[in-house]
Specification:
This protein has 8 helices and 8 strands. By secondary structure, the protein is of the alpha+beta class.
């Protein structure tokens, strides 16, 4: 997976913004996410100082990051209407890890389960994961304190990460993942992958 300078990675991985899907009253990203840009900083889990009952109080002049970042629900048509973050308690986003522990962490999709969400019990989490796991993009599921790899499947991921020879039934899939994510292999693992 080679990423050219100037590429909108979120658009490349999740797709363009969908017509008819707006944030509405949802301000989950304004609280949940950490923002650390030259023009704006906010810690994760802390509401933005500009968020009020009706949404962003400075919407017309909001920082660049707020003008250009959109959650996965705004981009992935296969996600159900019920998956909007304020309705589901799930936040779908592209995750960038500067020093990944393995090649499947460098650039991936993260589905974050927010406190109080009933998305697992009501089936919304399963619908979201089904929609996202159809692509050649790693998908992680997180509750904020721990995360687990949901896609690719464990047997495929183990061969991709360890650089071991897969059985014939997995070879094509393992090789596709390796080809796409080889650039994210940590330096100590480059000889084996």
């Amino acid at each position: 997976m080679r990423i050219k300078a100037g590429t909108d990675v979120e658009r490349s991985l999740l797709g363009p913004l969908l017509e008819g899907r707006g944030c509405g009253e949802c301000t989950i990203c304004c609280t949940t996410l950490k923002v650390d840009t030259p023009d704006f900083r906010k810690p994760a889990g802390t509401p933005c100082v500009h968020v009020g009952a009706g949404g962003c109080a400075i919407h017309a002049v909001r920082p660049h990051i707020c003008r250009t970042w959109y959650c996965g629900w705004r981009r992935v048509a296969a996600l159900p209407e019920a998956a909007r973050p304020d309705r589901s308690g799930l936040l779908v986003s592209v995750s960038f890890v500067r020093e990944p522990r393995n090649c499947l962490e460098g650039v991936s999709i993260n589905v974050r389960l927010l406190a109080g969400s009933t998305a697992i019990e009501d089936g919304t989490a399963a619908a979201v994961l089904d929609a996202l796991c159809a692509r050649l993009i790693p998908v992680w599921f997180s509750d904020g304190s721990s995360k687990m790899l949901m896609h690719p499947a464990n047997d495929v991921a183990q061969h991709v990460i360890a650089g071991t020879e897969p059985p014939a039934r997995l070879a094509a899939e393992v090789n596709a993942w390796r080809a796409r994510y080889a650039m994210f292999v940590p330096a100590e693992g480059r000889g084996s992958a």
